[in-house]
Amino acid sequence: MNLTARVNELPYVPQGVSDLGIFTERGVSTTSVEIEKKGTTLSLIPTSPRGSAPSQRVVDKRDIRVLNVPRIAREAVVHAHQVQNVRAFGTDDMLETVMGVLMDEVANANLEVDMTLENLRLGAVTGVIRDADGSTIYDLFSEFGVSQLGERDFELDDAETDVRQKCAELLRLMGRELKMGAALQNIQAAALCSDGFFDGLIGHASVKAAWERW
How many beta carbons lie within 10 A of that of residue 123, not counting itself? Predict the structure, then answer.
């Protein structure tokens, strides 16, 4: 019997967060990293009588945080029985080689690394970075001393909901948190959402009407 086709079934590796382009990578030679932050306080300058002492600027505070770099490692072993008397994948008359099996293992490990990085980046976006078993590696809210904003109900199950207004309110909230003010209208916002939310959003009456006008 001749081999007429071969199929290498590779699993899908999510890349949605990585494709956003909001992460940059830089290697370090230490097992921990320091993140230093210096805030700049902006406030209105009050009027004062001429000849009097002017108001003083508040000195900006600096703080530094030390984060341990977690280790991510994967090991693969090639045994003799994986090579000896084993036909090479996709061939009729060639035997498997140690290097061939090794390259397959490296390729599979690289896919697992990509999936692991995607999981870590998703945790960075949501604020809680989790390990493969679901345990918390870093809670960024507690590490940086910030509070997570409360949930916002878009009320998509109500046909009378003004979805555009809900989006505008959320953008304004983001602007206040980022202290951007009117500059927020010059940027675009992206949202990562579940299938249920997305289906409810595009299926809402006001969104359908807006799409028809578009």
Answer: 19
Is the pTM higher than 0.85?
Answer: no
Other beta carbons less than 10 A from residue 124's beta carbon: 15
Nearest to 9 by CA among 148, 108, 127: 108
Is residue 49 included in any domain, yes or no? no
- pLDDT of 95: 86
| Positions of the chain with pLDDT lower than 50, given as ranges | none
d(CA 146, CA 140): 8
Same domain, 135 and 167: no
The token pair at 101 is: 């099996």
**How far are the Cα atoms of 17, 102, 157, 161, 202 from residue 198, in angstroms, in the given order?**
17, 42, 12, 15, 6
Q: What is the pLDDT of residue 83?
A: 87
pLDDT for res 164? 92
How many structural domains comprise the chain? 2
Helices (H) and strands (E) in the chain, counts: 5, 4
In the chain, the amino acid numbered 170 is L
Alpha helix positions (H), 49-194: 98-126, 140-143, 163-178
CB atoms within 10 A of CB 120: 18
Structural domain of 141? 63-147
